[in-house]
Write the structure tokens for this entry.
Amino acid sequence: MGRYVVRRLLQMIPVFIGTTFLIYYMVYQLGGDPISAMFGDKGADPVFVRQMREEFHLNDPLIVQYWYYITDLLHGDFGTSFNGRPVADELKRAFPVSIRLAMIAFAIEVVVGVGLGLLSGLRRGKFVDTLVLAGTLVVISIPVFVLGTVAQFWLGSEWGIFEATATVGDATWSQLLLPGIVLGSLSLAFVARLTRTSVAENMRADYVRTATAKGLPRRRVVTRHLLRNSLIPVVTFLGADLGALMAGAIVTEGIFNVDGVGRLIYLAVTKHESSTVVGAVAALVMIYLVMNLIVDLLYAVLDPRIRYA
Amino acid sequence: MPDMNKQQREQLPTRSDEQPQSAIELPGMLLADEEGTTLEKRGAYSAPDARGPQDKPRGAWAEAWRELRNSPSFYVSGVLLLFLVFMAIFPGVFTNIDPRHCPILDTNQDPSGDHWFGTNVQGCDVYARTVYGARASIIVGVATTALIVVIGGLIGALSGYFGGWLDTILARITDIFFGIPLLLAALVFMSSVKDRTVWTVVAALGVFGWMQIARIMRGSVITVKKSDYVVAARALGAGTPRILGRHVLPNAIAPVIVVATISLGTFIATEATLSFLGIGLPPTEISWGADISSATTALRDSPYQLIFPSIFLSVTVFSFILLGDAVRDALDPKLR
């Protein structure tokens, strides 16, 4: 187990370097000159430009610039945004909000998703099953930005069931409820479908028949035997999804004015705040890679047939 | 069973690295990815015409086609898609109104005989814009899917067929691209390029959207290349290009078709999301995403300009996902 973790951690290094370089390349190479971007239409004093280029190593080849960047990053320095604030500070402010939002979305998708999936998997081919399948397909088909806009307008502003926007700075749990539901809805549909397939498949498994034949109550067969085994693929999806939820919040956070990482990235992208974009994406990639590792290890816990040497 | 352990150790990380973009395709993916050794209960994916030498080569495809013709979701999605594609090619058949003719005096009208879906903030006819908006969406969806099938198919086939160091390198490259969520990557790409066109959107989505196809293709090719008819072809002296082109690819392509169909819907949704964020299609292009975005400012006055393009967009995405579902059921009888 220990050796496996070490090997996986080592494998993460090239992936992390590659991914951050990809983002770095896109932002700094395709994006044009960052210094002239700071000045907009006015144009800048050439002396100042030369000074800035020197300070930010812009005269070096891209790979050297990237080297400076990644060594700083590993020392916890995410760079400085154009307004002079350290990117790390902005991330520290934005992440708790995004994590709170992701937790709400995650809780909803686990509870409702697994519940619906179990219900329809147990009654495969019945009315409930068809209803869940059709319902989830509809949810998958509606893009998040449509769902978010519609939910905000009707459920939030018009009927006042939920709070329609969040306060910038410190969003409360109740303000994050509706964005959380919107954010979690797509994954909820996937979780429900995945659980359904898995449950329906395992219903025919030998161990379920054995457990039933032993005379165990149905409740125990379902919860201890069927559900536990059926959740293995679901856990994989959920783990990877937790990382994706934080990145996928760009749209949701934008619509509901939630001051998290997604909105930070979006604003930075539109304003060409290169260092913020690269820093925030690098942080997300790190979370995502670690989540994947945790999922792989969880696999072994859930399914004792799997052993990592 | 030390041997078993070794195989699981090697394979499981690959499987759990999988990023199912959509859970509906997951069962097919698992089947295609495994080499049939670790998950006996799921069984190996049976290659379409690996059934026996007596069968005609197209037997399994014919069977899948027969299966499709019995599936209601195939008809529903097929009819919807034919309608949408027809609308994208000949928008003039559906409306005489110019979608770019916007008399500002007609701003934010409710639906009427003149304007079936009402008008938007600038006074443009929402019905005409919705009809004309289909073209950009469908072009982006189809072109991006073609691109990912080429890129992902090539990378997957090469790494599956040759294995070894090539496989290792390509797997790491795939991991790198998998590390950035599609929307995020496309957002950064689109904000970086100098001028935005339909084709830059296609490039953005294609360059960051091929990984799943590559992984599925790889798994599928690994399964197929061990089969008797490939060994036989090699024994008869067929060269690598011929084996790949005539034997491996036609038999490994089935799971790729399923995922590609479902992805088409995802790409249309992602393009609309980018346009909604104001960073997708250029403003000269009529796009559902951009129209929905501008409709949000006038929601209280006239919600119709939001609702109609949203319905068309959702129905388009829905049709492709439903079609993918139907195709998967037909190609993979195990799941029924």
